Amino acid sequence: MPVLLLDDDEVRARLDAPTAVRAVRGALLAAHEGGLDAPARVRADLGDGHLVFTAGRLRAEGLFGFRAYDTAVGAEQLVAVWGSDDGRLRAVVHGDELGARRTGAIGAVAVDAAARPGPIRLGLVGAGAQAWTQLWAIGAVRQVAEVTVAARRPERAQTFARRAAEELGVRARAVREPEQAVRDHDVVVTATHSATPVLEADWIAPGTHVTTLGPKTLSRHEVPAALGDRADVLLTDSLAQANSYSEPHVLPADRMVALGAVLAGAEPGRTSPEDITVFCSVGLAGTEVAVAAALHDAVLGRPEGSTVAG
Amino acid sequence: MPVLLLDDDEVRARLDAPTAVRAVRGALLAAHEGGLDAPARVRADLGDGHLVFTAGRLRAEGLFGFRAYDTAVGAEQLVAVWGSDDGRLRAVVHGDELGARRTGAIGAVAVDAAARPGPIRLGLVGAGAQAWTQLWAIGAVRQVAEVTVAARRPERAQTFARRAAEELGVRARAVREPEQAVRDHDVVVTATHSATPVLEADWIAPGTHVTTLGPKTLSRHEVPAALGDRADVLLTDSLAQANSYSEPHVLPADRMVALGAVLAGAEPGRTSPEDITVFCSVGLAGTEVAVAAALHDAVLGRPEGSTVAG
User: InterPro entries of this UniProt entry (chains A, B) (predicted)?
Assistant: First the structure.
């Protein structure tokens, strides 16, 4: 079987949201059950920056691999996946699209686990690639009745809303103020680079689910500390990664629960329609490998003799 | 320009020895001149083994990348190369062939720099992939008048000799005893996994060049400590890597000279036809990246606008 080599355009064309969500859900469960080796990232010094590797091994699926990116040049990322039964390289995916889509898929799994059931009004603060892939993936787990998007540059929010309507068939509108994208929404996603809060905690109504993708340390945070006080449930995709930040979180890390544990039923998630749930997305290592492997199987089929999970 | 993806068969078909030798010579010179960032290897824990990454950046050539291999599964290796000017992934090479050929090319550069001029009688102890690629690459720097090969399993030496005659057109013969492949040769290469010496130092005549590829620590070494006493010049492709072994070398590391420094004329190599020169091959990091990039340019041409070295 040949090695699958894909670039950003091919990822956009060939990866569908249900596939990505399914792969990521499997990896999150595996992380909870001890079936995912996802060691801390390692770095090789390139002089004025680093090559950074996040590795992952999914035991039940018989997969391992890594994502590589650099901080010296800002070059294309690379994800490589091998089968651990036959030791064959299966897929190499380069560019930025796979990483953004797996982050979207992680966010969608959190929405599925923690948001109230039924169609949602989705509010986005931020109109970049990360906001886009959250919307793209959430569509695989919930009917999106309407999406509202706010961005620092209004024209980007307008472009985003047009694209959402055209490509995803979602009712979408751009708004001027973040507050308009936050109040009266069932799910709110902040996907910014902002070092200061883009929302106020009391804009969040009871029952809302919030995902924060951007900065969330004490010195730089897109959501306020008061959101932690209002949250009934705080989730993250990786407790280990959340606790390995060089600086404390603005949200209380000691209250965070692993999303995988909620999926497995080992920890409660939402227990009331009035709960406010907050998901701190940190990008569980190994999930890129899971998505690249799922993409391989979707395009080329599952390799003969490979381990079937479960 | 598309990304070049090559497997072992394609490397065998498309990489010629002069190209590999030229690429490796450039990297060795760059290492001497400070133009190669080749940090210590980094490891990510996979539970019952590691993913290991050796990174390299060639500044003048505008290249960076890494080799990845694992100690958990023993899967195919992967070498990836990016252009640092445009940040585009250029080539992905998987399998074991590229690494063996770059090791061959390093050995050939050492032969070119340190062996006596003129046609050589080449003696090989070991008949595996590493011995093969030494012979393959040495042919790009010296006329090989004859190759003699000894192996622990005689039939492997015979197969090797037949293949050398057929594929490389070299006069080749298999011998029973390592001594027959060592005495009266101009260049001797040991390419074994042996933990005990496969030759005696006094088999090495004045004027001989020796390359050792296999184990060379105090507790496990394919060449004897006495070879260090007999050697007039001790070379290595990387002083940093030679000195980072967890155990001391059986040959005196404090007398070792960087091959790149000899190529640059900054250190003397052979100063007399009677000198015995010994090359301790450790596999300078970054050389895989240089060879993969040269292979890319040979197959697809040099990318437009890319930095031209020198």
Answer: NAD(P)-bd_dom_sf, ODC_Mu_crystall, ODC_N
Per-residue pLDDT averaged across A165-191, rounded? Answer: 97
Q: Give the CA distances from residue A23 to residues A27, A123, B47, in Å, rounded to whole numbers and listed in that order.
A: 6, 25, 21
Residue A215 contacts B, CB cutoff 8 Å: no
For range A4-21, the mean pLDDT: 96
For domain B104-280, the CATH class is: alpha beta
Q: Residue A36 is which amino acid?
A: L
The rounded percent of chain A whose pLDDT value lies above 70 is: 98
Superfamily of domain A106-280: NAD(P)-binding Rossmann-like Domain (3.40.50.720)
**What does the pLDDT read at residue A306?**
57
Q: Is the pLDDT of residue A254 over 60?
A: yes
Which H or E element spans position A178?
Answer: helix A178-182
Nearest to B64 among A46, A54, A84 (CB): A46
- Average pLDDT per run of 10 along chain B, which is 310 residues long? 93 97 98 93 92 95 96 95 96 97 98 97 98 98 98 97 97 98 98 97 98 95 97 96 85 95 97 98 95 94 61
Note whether B145 contacts A: Cβ–Cβ < 8 A: no
Q: Do A89 and B76 touch (CB under 8 A)?
A: yes
Nearest Cα residue in chain B from A57: B46
Q: Which CATH architecture has domain B4-98+285-300?
A: 2-Layer Sandwich (3.30)
Q: Which of A73, A85, A90 is most worth mutating to test chain B (most B CB atoms within 10 A of its CB)?
A: A73
Q: Which helix (H) or strand (E) holds B20?
A: helix B17-33
Tell me the pairing of strands A42-45 and A36-37: unpaired
Asked if B46 and A64 come within 8 Å (Cβ–Cβ), the reply is yes
Please state, in angstroms and rounded to a whole number, the distance separating the CA atoms of residues B90 and B101.
Answer: 19
ipTM for the whole complex: 0.89
Domain boundary assignment for chain A: 4-98+285-300, 106-280
| Amino acid identity, position B26 | G
The b-or-e profile of A15-27 (16+ CB within 10 A means b, else e) is bbbebbbbbbbbb
Give B94's contacts in chain A (Cβ within 8 Å): 3, 89
- Determine, for residues A88 and B72 on separate chains, whether the beta-carbon distance falls below 8 Å: no
pLDDT above 80: residue A54: yes
Which residues of chain A are within 8 Å of residue B81 when distances are taken between CB atoms? none
Asked if the C-beta of B300 comes within 8 angstroms of chain A's C-beta atoms, the answer is no
Which of A5, A43, A45 has the CB atom closest to B92's CB atom?
A: A5
